[in-house]
Amino acid sequence: MPVLRDLRRTGAPLPARLEDSDWDQSTDSATAMLWSAGGSGVGIRVFRDASLVDQVVDVTDQVQEWAVEELAVSGRTDWPPCPKHPGTHPLRAERHDGAAWWACPRDGTPVAEVGTVG
């Protein structure tokens, strides 16, 4: 999962456990659980009929939300931080030129391909 490489490279929290889980019991999606070191978990989902790029963007968004919650304890909520606007907002996962990219949510500028941050 490219977003996990970004977590690792930037020193952000990593899930203590990632496991397949059919928590929504749908044939339209694949689901898994991310577990934090503290024992809390969050479900992530991708829709099977979405393109691979859209699946990566969607999973990246969900994992980012988990990471920001984990970082909130330390007062940091801007992961990954926007280099154009330090301290104001995190980057957002978006589709650009047929790939999943981290982009500035303010002006839409692509910053780095998902999986290459850090």
- Uncertain residue ranges: none
Helical percent range?
Answer: 25-40%
The tally of strands reads 6
Overall average pLDDT: 94
The global form is globular
Total tally of structural domains: 1
Q: In percent terms, what proportion of residues is strand?
A: 25-35%
Determine Rg (CA atoms, Å).
14 Å
Distance between the termini: 15 Å
Structural class: alpha+beta
By DSSP (H or I, 4+ residues per run), the number of helices equals 2
Biggest sheet, open or closed, and with what strands and sense? 3 strands, antiparallel
Strand order of the largest sheet: 1-2-3
**Helix and strand sequence:** HEEEHEEE
Explain briefly what this protein structure is.
Residues 1-25 are annotated as: Disordered. The chain is α+β, with helices and mostly antiparallel strands. Helices cover 25% and strands 27% of the residues.
Structure description:
The strands form 2 sheets. Strands 1-2-3 form a 3-stranded antiparallel β-sheet, with helices on one face. It has a 3-stranded antiparallel β-sheet with strand order 4-5-6. It is of the alpha+beta class and 118 residues long. Helix content is 25%, strand content 27%. The model has no long low-confidence stretch (mean pLDDT 94). It has 2 helices and 6 strands, in the order αβββαβββ. The protein starts with a helix and ends in a 5-residue tail after the last strand. It has one domain (2-113). It has helices spanning 2-10, 52-72, and strands spanning 17-20, 29-35, 41-47, 92-96, 99-103, 110-113. Residues 1-25 are annotated as: Disordered.
